[in-house]
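Ticket #4471: complex job returned nothing on first submit. Input attached below:
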Amino acid sequence: MKMLSDLGVIIGITLMYSAPLIYTSLGGVLSENAGVVNIGLEGMMTIGAFAGATVAYFTQNPWIGFLAAGIAGGLLALLHAIACVTFTADHVVSGIAINFIGPGLSIFLTKIFFDGAAMTIPLDLDNKIPRPLNGLFSSISPTNPTMARIVDALDSIFNQYATVYIALLLVLAVWFFLYKTKLGLRIRSVGEHPRAADTLGINVYRIKYLAVILSGVLAGFGGAAMSIAVISNYRAALISGQGFIALAAMIFGKWKPQGAMLGCLLFGAAQGLVVYLGSTSLNISSQLLAMLPYIITLVVLMGFVGEARGPKASGIPYEKE
Amino acid sequence: MKGNKFVITLISILLGLVIGGIALSITGFNPIEAYKIMFKGVFSNPKYISWTIIRSTPLILTGISVSFAFKTGLFNIGAEGQFIFGSLVATLVGYFFHLPPIIHPIVALLAGILAGALWGGIAGFLKSKFGINEVITTIMLNWIALYFSNFMVFWEPFKRPNRDASERILDTASIQILEKWKTSDAGKAFLANNTFLKDFLNPPVNFGIIIAILVAILIWYILKHTTLGYQLRAVGFNKDAAEYGGINIKRNTILAMMIAGAISGLSGATQVLGVSKETAILATMEGYGFDGMAVALIANSNPLACIPAALLFGGLKYGGSKLQPTMGAPIEVINITIGVIIMFIAMPKLINIIAAFRSRKRGVEIENAK
Amino acid sequence: SSSDTPSEVEGPTETEDQGEAENTPASEPIRIAMVTDEGGVHDQSFNQSAWEGLQRAQEELGIEVSYQESQQDADFAPNFETLLDAGNDLIWGIGFKLADAVLDAATANPDQKYAIVDHSFGDNTPDNVVGVMFKAEQPSFLVGYIAGRMTETNKVGFVGGIAGDIIWGFDYGYQAGVQYAAHELGKEIEVLNQYAESFSDVAKGKAIAQQMYQQGADIVFHAAGDVGTGVIEAAKEQGKWAIGVDRDQNYLAPDNVLTSAMKRVDVGVYNVVKDLVEGKFPGGQTITYGLADGGAVDIAPSSNKHVPQEILDAVEELKQKIIDGEIVVPYNEATYKEFIDSLK
Amino acid sequence: MNNIDYNTKVIEMKNITKKFGDFVANDNIDLVVHKGEIHALLGENGAGKTTLMNILYGLYQPTSGEIFINGKKVEVSNPNVAIANGIGMVHQHFMLVDNFTVVENIILGMEPIGKFGVVDINKARKEVEELSSKYGLYVDPDAKIEDISVGMQQRVEILKALYRGADILILDEPTAVLTPQEIEEIIEIMKNLTKQGKTIIIITHKLKEIKQSADYCTIIRRGKKIGTVKVDDVTEEELASMMVGREISFKVDKKPAEIGDVILEIEDLTVKDNRGLDVVKNLSLKLHKGEILGIAGVDGNGQSELVEALTGLRKVESGKVILQDKDITNLTPKEIMESGMSHIPEDRQKRGLVLDFTVAENMILENYHKEPFSRKGRLNHRNISQFTVELMEKFDVRPRNDKLTAGALSGGNQQKVILAREITNDPEVLLAVQPTRGLDVGAIEFVHKYLVEQRDKGKAVLLISFELDEVLDLSDRIAVIYDGQIVDIIAEKDADEKTIGFLMAGGGVEDERK
Ligand SMILES: Nc1ncnc2c1ncn2[C@@H]1O[C@H](COP(=O)(O)OP(=O)(O)OP(=O)(O)O)[C@@H](O)[C@H]1O
Ligand SMILES: Nc1ncnc2c1ncn2[C@@H]1O[C@H](COP(=O)(O)OP(=O)(O)OP(=O)(O)O)[C@@H](O)[C@H]1O
Ligand SMILES: [Mg+2]
Ligand SMILES: [Mg+2]
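Support reply: We reran it on our side without changes. The output follows.
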């Protein structure tokens, strides 16, 4: 029975950990499917985390903050798009630049808005993104201990911030968008064979701009999912490496939304496992435990995933003849 | 063409400084004043120059590492982890081995090189054996290296009591220049009369910079003038053609990652033997690898150009760090400036347009003058 | 025995006139600066606290203060150099990570005064260096005692950042406090204990805390920097107790932060600066702040919001016992074992 | 032929000039095309044919000149304008998205939209099926492009244009990659289309096809229009000399072969393709010194895999390859090369060249580790350059600059670089796969001459080509490959197009079964 609630906790942690990564790697999926490599996810995520926390604090409304995070990420992505699409910059170079500018700007602005402090002021629980199922399970207090365990586990799993559910819905939405709609078809065509799209009268540049900006919006959401849901403010080290993990998850997922989600969930589950193992009486050094998620990812890649091919024209600046 | 690239880089640096200056003005700081402070902070005293060089040395090497990988068609995000692994192993050798001077640092450096090569080689192996994209593996390996290093620092015989750091390397393993002499009476007496040298030698000046320059030349030479470089580049540009030409793709992929890793590992080793003398607990990534990527990009993946690029980068960071105590300006401006510089370097097209526009304007002015 | 506690022999009252401070020309104000570690000056933790101490000194003592942030370990040494050249009278290194850099700088510049927070060079302290240490295990013991008294589930938790001497002090002091209370109450209290191996991964802090609450802990203490933010966030969400660290962290979650184990770096910094200004720079020594030393370490003032008066009264008694040396608070595994044995 | 409506000029291009920098790709070209006609554009590589058509389709803007479509002056600023004016183009290099299905490729840019903004794939499929049956263009609507034959890809391209309501179709070298059967088919399709009122402009180097299909032919040489002729009034030879400005001999000059000992022996070879299916099945073949052995066959019958297996680029599952008494089965490409085999690869840009390398660097791709190009791991740039310049001279690679990247060369010159490199290896066995693909007649003549020369030196050449004419012209013996096996070997004197075409289509196999 203890196992049940342990499992609940692990799943709960998995979801919490994965959600910000899922947004961001979906962003990567969109951008790369349109042929623009986005190493700058980390920077876009950071500026989203900053903008989300700041705007939510000043408006006292998490949703406005969440939107602002998307806009901020989108704006930074616009810069990436201008560089990569209009000025045919090397995508990696531009992405790295974004990773300097995004975090630099975030802290810089935080200091301006918050009297020189390097973190934003925390939101009250009420001003954070809501938890739609909060209280649902704790309101049932069954007398049967087994039932209580089950309810506990359910609470651990499902009592999540709305951002978690939105992330999962977005996976579906992005999948639908990419594979079922006109725009999705065009985005993918532009990533595979831009010249072909061009000869069919598709405006390659406009499509790329759209996809890159959307990718920034999603990465921005990912940052906000961290700063106004997982915790309640932005601080300098809040985003340190998640953007790169999301990038890895996207490659892991073979550039597909559902695959990227799996990659993020795997990583989150590994973290959940680490936290769980750390709580057991197993005497494993915590430094070695901390390595585990990364090792698990590598092993899964070796055993199950193997070679993956990205969109053919990814990373190649497109120039009209 | 080459001159063109150089000019573009210069203009990018200028534009980066301008935009950084704008950010400073917005926050109410005088940018001219700020840049003056930075400039002085780097050049006004020989010891600042030393510090800038010391600060830049590891970045030259990680920059070369990333550049080398780029040239062979690989994206080495793992310089950070290779650096960490290289420094860890160099510290282990520097502390546990008892060897005579000169031999000791050489052995420790080689150990660092090997460690980095191993760490990079893992990514190369996973790529050639399982086809796993090196971007993922190197990101994962960075974190594994970090935690492993922390794990090792806590290893009882290695941990320094009352410190969250390892034991310091033995003096025999140091690569600092004139380290003993500097503090000896003879040295002090000599330096008292020679303030330039005294100041210059004040920081932990070490052979790292010389090693870095030698490595830059070596790697440039390998890429350009050897069959090894030829085959690595061939694999980087076109695997299928290289395979057709009889070049072993898998072996060369592993080899390329190993060499890239070796250079980053060496970077870590020189940092330990020349500057830090120890491996400390790492709370986060220190950024040697990530800054190395920036350096490689500024240098357009040319190993030789990594030297000035890293000096620029190190100079900006070191000079920029003096803004806070003197004028209270936030140092984030430096990161923004660096980002903007890289962004402009990425857009030669834009720079060319700006340049063309300017020269047209000048042309018009000349016309008008006539 | 009392010699087991760190540097008990040296106290803040032991000062030695270096005779140098008076030589500072009166016309120029005294300038004091500090080098932070990678956390930066606004880290909501010891760097910020140190800076607040300096700012207070600036206001009250009419000196000039500044700081220099480090972005990586390699910055420490050049940062000390920069501040040296800027003509500072005293340069602080904030945090034990800077110990080596301080020692190197002090050796190279024997005429310059330095100070280090959270580290002791023991008998080898150069004459131009002051160490400032805090017996963090003591307030940790007190919050542990509060936790032990207040837990309803007989399970409490501790979340550490990256393991190491300093954090162990918090950890073992806290455990000792809990067990002391358990002993007093004659019951068994379990302490869940986990390290995040990070000072910045807030999600991991939150995950660990959630998991502890899920296992039935109702109070979790953290000594984990930003990771602790995640711990407090989890407490907030689950309506459980968290215990803050370093400063009074009640403001982060007024309804859920039960108390905090305070380590007033600002007080320590201020006191040394004040001594310097008064010409009593305590060079060559390590000043160790315990509960006895003017509130530099203590439980947070906001504790009375949630902790019943009777328990606070008991805490006061404990405090006295610690000051009197009746209770010797453990700060690492070995001393903790001794302590537990002594309880039996 | 009687579909032409001479009263309607659907296309009229006047004084079209296109400059790329200082280079004039089109120099004051006029072109008139009538409704219902098949109009061929003929010219050497780089003459400017594609450029002219790209201008018509709105991909390039002319430096000067005017375009009239159906008598109306049109500014074709982008492909959308061309499409709106009923022009469709099938590009020299297919413009298909590999991992999309046939239907997705066809509707891209003009997607039928159903509920919730979803692409209505069912409707699209139906439309495609209708079009395909109307014009006799058979395709599998749900297959992915990467899984279908080149011939079907070609049909997809044409359907793409028709789907957009094109009345005027531009086909840029549509037959370059097709098998003889597929060529027959496409000519049939073109004629069929003109019957239904469509107009076709076709670019091709193959004179025979022009004779078979076109009504009129406009010849372009070095960017200038030489003239427009009625195809019925001229011979192939006349077309050829108009195109290059000199006489061209079609017949490959060769003495009778002096066939020697067996040099390469393939025994019961089995090879799998990328999907893991056997595509070369127990294939056996012997190649002699002093002969050109042509392998005729329709693309996809295991030729590519056979070559890759022979050269060490693909694993041999079972069987043996023996070169000069040495078993070279599953040796590395390098070892095989060193045993005396050279290889002109099928895809020059994918396998044959490192496009980012200079010509000089490409010249030593297989020999960089040998003297005089390197010693003890150190490259000797001077020797490399000298060697390259000599070869560029000998093989007439233009422009004659060994520091140019290979990517900057035209396709024909790229092929010459490869040829130079492989022939200079002086191999015992030369595997020539599609050696003249996409080349103009002048260049083809050149390549053929070298292959024959190689044979005459007593070396062996294994020629694999989908161009039956080429195989027939060059080979001393012809082996026909079908379904991964050699179904028959025919001596030059007994070979004719009909028998071989029959065998290529699997005729021989059925015979045996009977
Ligand atoms: N985008 C471009 N920019 C500059 N030069 C180009 C470009 N595209 C082609 N060229 C130049 O055009 C020349 C011929 O290129 P192209 O591929 O069209 O050859 P081609 O005329 O089709 O010859 P072939 O039939 O041999 O392939 C090359 O020398 C190349 O330098
Ligand atoms: N984008 C371009 N930039 C510069 N030059 C070009 C470009 N495209 C084509 N050219 C030049 O124009 C010339 C004509 O090229 P085009 O592709 O029209 O030849 P073509 O007649 O189609 O040849 P082929 O038979 O090989 O297809 C080429 O030789 C090339 O030098
Ligand atoms: Mg053409
Ligand atoms: Mg061509």
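The domain at 56-309 of chain B is CATH 1.10.3470 (ABC transporter involved in vitamin B12 uptake, BtuC). Closing as resolved unless it happens again.
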